[in-house]
Structures are given as structure tokens and as C-alpha cells.
Amino acid sequence: MSRLVTIVPALLLALQACSAVSPDDTSDGGSAPRRDGATPIDERDGGGGPIDGDGGTASDRDGGSSGTTDGGAPASCAPACGSGTVCVDGECVERVSGVPGIDSVLLGDPTRFDEEVLISQNPDLSWRPSRIYKWRDFVQAVTTMHTRGIGDMRLWLGEPGDPEPARSRYALVNLAAFLAQSMKETIRYDACDENNWDMTNGYAISNACGQLGQDYAGAGYDCEMACPRDPSMRMTAVTHAQWYGAPGPLFCAPNATLASVSGRSDGRTGRWNYGFDCYPYPASQPGFVAPGGDAWTRPQCEVYEGQRAGRYEWDGSGGSVEGCCWWGRGVIQTTGRCNFGMLNHYLGAGHLDPARFPRPAGALYPDVNFCRDPEAICASTEHPELKWIAGLFYWMSSVEPYSRDGWVYKDRLRAFVDGGMTDGTFIDGVSGIVNRGCHNPPCGTGPLDGAADRRANFELVLTTMGLR
């Protein structure tokens, strides 16, 4: 804990301040946005100087070079590394940690992990391998956060002085606990972007701004490191729910941009009418490819592949989505302007006054501006590991250093391993931290959601890793 405070005090203080309550998870996928303590990191508004450019058009997405950049940023590997290797500073190497017991699991055959662990549920409740979460991307993210990290903070894979095979078990259990939470939060839904899941307002288009009464750009998600407000931002989510009539992807755009489809000058939008039937189901026909571009410009009933019902209805029932580009993204749903601002400062292009907020040496992704383009987490083709990186950033800063009322994460993990890996209270405590912000919910935010699923996920990952 003190080590984290020494290294990145502003990060830890911001995370502690970002303690917004996470709403109950939903059953239609993509669950509720995650927060610091209640899941990923969190956000607020304001703080820091303006960023260059007009913001949010994603024009600079994937625009980085492959060489080492200013500040000692890592070089990428081109072509991509082959099986059994990962990219470290521009070279493909057969090493994640240098510990055989760890590396043999992570760099071994990915098939079983892709086909049995990283699986998603179809609308008919059958299961299939995830289309967006892949083991190789996860291993690359683990390698990057362990070998490069943020400043002196590294993803924990045991201590160098830990004897074998205990160190390997500590490291793999840490990763298994992370995966168990990720499987529940997003992987089972194949969601990278937050789904429009709040039906209390009729699946309002303005759910992009915050669901169940939240405001992802507002004061409840603010901190000094937050991305600046930018009403010119315009983007559409990459992923969305898939059930019959499921709402189309979340999007944000200036009021003036949407006036042509809403017919309104006050910025009000509408809702997704999930009961509208799309017969003869053009989006379900063989060979159909969903159109790209802005969601609101796509033909009715052709908003996404497989759509069989639903449409946007611009009846004024939803609020403005101007500047509402901060919905949850990534494997543990990083949400809001504070969280994206911290990602941008510590991992990305940066946007803050360096006199007040010194930049860590060698930012991992100086070519990615998470403030201009938060959608890069889900859309980047150059950095497909970003959807994992965002979640690991939360894990390193909020779970690994967790210590409250005598419950210390690493101590409990060691005790779990040393005790024969039979104590179910360990994963329940971790689930509480991620889902509700404390190891012993309810802690003012409600009961733990999906405890049984999280336990089962943990057991599955441990078995697949060969620890059972």
C-alpha cells in the first residue's frame, strides 16, 4: 500500500475519491459500469489543461509508430509475434516473467483457454468462444504490465524471493482471480463497450451519459486528473447486447449533429423501441454486414448484424448525448472522465499540466489519447490488448494493494495458496472488492452480485491452469 502511495500518490488518491456506487448488475449483458472499489477505476470532471485538437473524432486511433517513442515508450513488434512468444520492447521473446512455472502456463497452447475459459453466452443461452477476448491478447497485456508497468508499479506475479512452486501458484492465482471477475463482468456477454441495459427509462438513447440516474461526465465521476469536457466528441460503441430486440450501440454526438435525425434543436433524443419487429429481418440474412459509421445514420433494422427487432425512436423522451462519451469500456468496464483521464496520464498521450502532474517515464501507449478517443480501448486494431490493459490497471491500483479492516489482498492470496487453495472466502472477498468496493459486502452499496458465478469461474480458471 505504501509503495503505491509513494509511486503514484495522485493515482491512489483519485481512485479513493472515485468511490461511486456501482448499480446492480443486469442480466442482458455488459453489466453495470464498474468503478474504483466497485469494479474498475472511476472518473470525475475537470482538472488539467485542455488537450490539443477538436477531440473525439477518433482520427488518431491506431496512429502510433512502431519505434521507441519519446520518454522511453516500448516499441511494438511488426509483424506480430507468433505462438508461444510475446512482444517486449520491440522483440518477440519466449518469456513473460522468467519463471518457468508461470511462463509455461501463459505461453502454452491457448486453445483450452480460448475455448473453455474466455467464452460468451449466445441469446439462446448456449456458449461459444468470445469473439473479442483472446488469450494471446491477455498474455500480452500481462507481460506489458509486469515488465513495463506504470512507473515502478508492476502487475504482481509473486516476489523474486518466493520459493518454487509457491511463487508460480501465487502469480497464477492472482491472474485467475482477475479472470474470474472479468468473466462475470464482460466476457460472458462478449461486451467491451457498456451495453444499453437500463430499461427503467425505456432504454433511453441518453443512457450513454449514465445509467440508473448516473452521470459519467458529471461531478459524481470527477477528479483533478479527469479528461476535459468536450461537447464536440462524436463516436459509436463497437459492441452491444445481442438478445432479440437488444438496443443498438451507445453513441455520443453534439446536439447540432443529431438535429437532422431528431428534428429537435434542444438536444433531446429518444429511446430504443425493442418491440418494433424487423420482419423480414434484413440484418439476419446470409452475407449481411452491418454498416459502419455513426449508429444513428444506419438504416432501420440494419443497425447491427443479426438484429431482428428494435429501432431508435426520436420522440424526445431521452436527454442530450452531447459530451456523453464516457460509458464503460474494457474487461472490467473503465467508466467516466476521471478513469479515462488517469489512463491517459499514466498510460496514454497525456493531457495534464506536467508541473502539477509529472508524467511517468515511458508511457506505454503515447500514441493513444484516451481523452480524445476513449473508444480506442475497444476499437484499436494496433493494440488489441488495450481492453485487458485497462482492467489490469484497475487491478494493480485497486485490488492488489487493497487493505481494509485487517483484510489484505496479497496476504489473503498467500494464505489461500499455502492452505491448499480450499478456502472459498478468498475469492468471495475479491469479488466483493470488485463488485461492491469492499471485501465483505454489503458495504453500503448492496449485496454481492453473482457470487456463485464468480466462484465457479475461479475454479474453472484454476483447473485450466493446472492448479486443480
From TrEMBL:
Classification via SUPFAM superfamilies: Lysozyme-like (SSF53955)
Region forming the signal peptide: 1-19
Record key words, sorted: Signal
Regions of compositional bias (Basic and acidic residues) in chain numbering: 33-46
InterPro entries, sorted: Lysozyme-like_dom_sf
Region (Disordered): 21-74
PANTHER family for the chain: AGAP001705-PA, CHITIN-BINDING TYPE-4 DOMAIN-CONTAINING PROTEIN
Name under which the protein is recorded: Chitinase
Species for this entry: Sandaracinus amylolyticus
